[in-house]
Amino acid sequence: MARTTISSLFGSSPVKPLQSHMNSVQTCVEELIPFMDAVLIKDWDSALKVQLKISELEQESDKLKKDLRLNLPNSLFMPVSRRDLLEVLTMQDKIANKAKDIAGLITGRKMNIPDPLGTQFKTFINRSIDASAQACQAINELDELVETGFKGREVNLVAKMIRKLDKIESDTDRIQVKIRAEIFKRETELPPIEVMFLYKIIEWIGDLADIAQRVGSRLELMLAR
């Protein structure tokens, strides 16, 4: 019988392709850094190029997601349930989707980030990407967890990573509150429609960290079982 794409690349375990998908997601999300740099200086040609790259990377991660779903066995002889893996996969996918949505909306409207808020926006998006990177690091330990039967020092290491992820997400919450307050002060100076979309983008950037934290929370549940 011909081997599936996943089994030929990674063997019978779905853990490696799950990690491969998360690494692909992180590559996509990190492109928001040069994207935001271009947006803040209103270099829309460069911003559009990065936005297209983000879209392409999201499509690549989407292919990995579909391949894993199609080839995932109904039962696994390992201490990770099919349901847990699918839920983690879905949340990882949402991170890439959110990055694509952020870049798409900003370029589609050529949104103007008020100059006084530029530094805060960069800090906000960088910290949200930190959350995704921390989730990626934790997921990349999953194969080691499986090998040790979710016991020993590896469990403590991953638990520490998840606590750090929670802290990063809390940081993004605090930054988000400050940016919202600054926009509120300037609402009368800005076009109402622009204000509405600024709040939407702030919400979506915060979602990056929130979803990344959910990846960590699901991994934490695996540790507890």
Shape: globular
* Estimated helix fraction: over 70%
What about the largest sheet?
none
Rg, nearest Å? 19 Å
Question: How would you describe this structure to a colleague?
Answer:
The protein is mostly helical. It has one domain: Methane Monooxygenase Hydroxylase, Chain G, domain 1 (Up-down Bundle). It has helices at 5-10, 15-30, 32-40, 44-71, 82-109, 118-139, 142-147, 153-186, 192-224. Helix 6 runs antiparallel to helix 8. The longest helix is centred in the last third of the chain and has 34 residues, at 153-186. Residues 1-11 have low confidence and may be disordered.
Record keyword descriptors for this entry.
single chain; Methane Monooxygenase Hydroxylase, Chain G, domain 1; 9 helices; 81% helix; globular
Quick rundown:
The protein has 225 residues and is an all-alpha fold.
How is this fold's topology laid out?
Elements: H1 5-10, H2 15-30, H3 32-40, H4 44-71, H5 82-109, H6 118-139, H7 142-147, H8 153-186, H9 192-224
